[in-house]
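ARCHIVE RECORD
Type: protein–small molecule complex
Small molecule: glutamine
Source of inputs: curated submission
Record status: active
Notes field left blank by submitter.
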Amino acid sequence: MKNTKYVFVTGGVTSSLGKGIIAASLAKLLQERGYSVTIQKLDPYINIDPGTLNPYEHGECYVTDDGAETDLDLGHYERFLNIPTSQANNVTTGRIYQSVINKERRGEFLGKTVQVIPHITDEIKHRIQILGKTGKYDIVITEIGGTVGDIESLPYVESVRQLQWELGQENAIVIHLTLVPYLAAAGELKTKPTQHSVKMLMQSGINPNILVCRTEHEINDSIRRKLALFCNVKKQDVIQSLDAETIYDVPNMMFDEGLDKVVLEKLELSSEKQPKLIDWNDFVNKHKNPKSTIEVGLIGKYVELRDSYKSITEAFIHAGATNEVKVKVRWIHSEELTPENAASKLEGLNGVLVAPGFGERGIEGKIAAVQVARENNIPFFGICLGMQMAVIEYSRNILNLAGANSTEMSEKTAHPVINLMEEQKNITDKGGTMRLGAWDCTIEKDSKVFDAYKSELISERHRHRYEFNNEYLKQIEAAGMKATGVNTKTGLVEIVEIPSHPWFVGVQYHPEYKSTVLNPHPLFVGFIKAALQHSKK
Ligand code: GLN
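STRUCTURE (tokenized, with ligand):
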């Protein structure tokens, strides 16, 4: 059993400073030094999970092996650390309140008035320590979503204060991430916003142990001294975080600044073993020094907010490095694609990825993109809804099943080649009720996917309600599209391919969630490899 130590990461001044990347980078360095580390995100919104949020609101919804629908920062944690996260790694205010209210209904508070302090804060502290109490981790890093000073994050900040007091400063530290803006007119970096945000933390009873300052310009010695003096930290505890060329540079940058070292010192842990980052740097070098460039199209309906496809674009980066090629992404809005203009909008692409999604908007554009890729031998990768669109396109244009569709888009379609899963039929609640999480899939040996995975049994994560309708399987296979992967337990079709095409793969699951720096996803590697070959023709 380990004596788990806790690191809290709070944010000040503004949102979007990259707390998730700082947390993941610190975790990476600590992991490289031999510590077992995990990261958790506490989100202050009242939704139980981001599963019901529109991607425009919150970016991608990331899914874990155990089927939790979570914040996209968990994707960064997995990509950096190469270890899976779980439901326990993402907690929302909604979930906290739900469990407290459920306890109240069960009468577990013995007639007491239920209050934010202590009941909500107790539940938050319990959730923070769940990972620690597994005994698996030396260090748990907890990222507090939102910005200090928000009404919503007050109970979290108060819980951190209590925990630090209960566990002692040598077991629980607070890193505060702030912005040090540069005023071009004055030609100066400004420390006041940081001072104010630290003051705000102090009003809540927390003195940050370490300041990480996001900045566009080097923070010089005198500014460091000023920040230290006004924010009650030592000069070496002021860590600068300059804008990075890529998020994958941040672990090295944090090492150069000594972030991991001051963290270990404060936690009274040895900092003797140095992080080496050998495989990591090998990846970063390949990523930064590609031998050629290819262009792939990402067809989606949320392309205005690129965070909606975070795991996909990161998986491109991993697979690009493996293939030593730069993957340029052409963002294509599915609503702007028509059968008439699709060929010209996809002109020059070396690969086409049709993205996941829900609902009718933009699907005809996706179908048009599939057709162009299929007919012109452009490597095609369909993910979830993208796979369903590939099946629909094939049914309409090769099997001549006019109007073939998914019952998600057209309940009365004459040819429901994609339909609602049996176990979904009586479900009315929207939250957390899809087919979620990891499922085993058996792969056919003579297939592109087997070439990629080099295994007949895989496990991948799902997030959908609709599925390939097996009543059409025979017809579709006879026409040339093959089901090369099926769910080991249920027989549901999970993968379709067109063997006569250079690389045409549709998967019902989400491979992007499992691509990491150290384990780029085999299908992304295969897709990019095929795109690279296409570019050479
Ligand atoms: N809307 C489709 C379904 O529910 C696909 C979901 C997705 O792409 N994640 O089956």
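CURATOR ANNOTATION: The first helix runs from residue 19 to 32.
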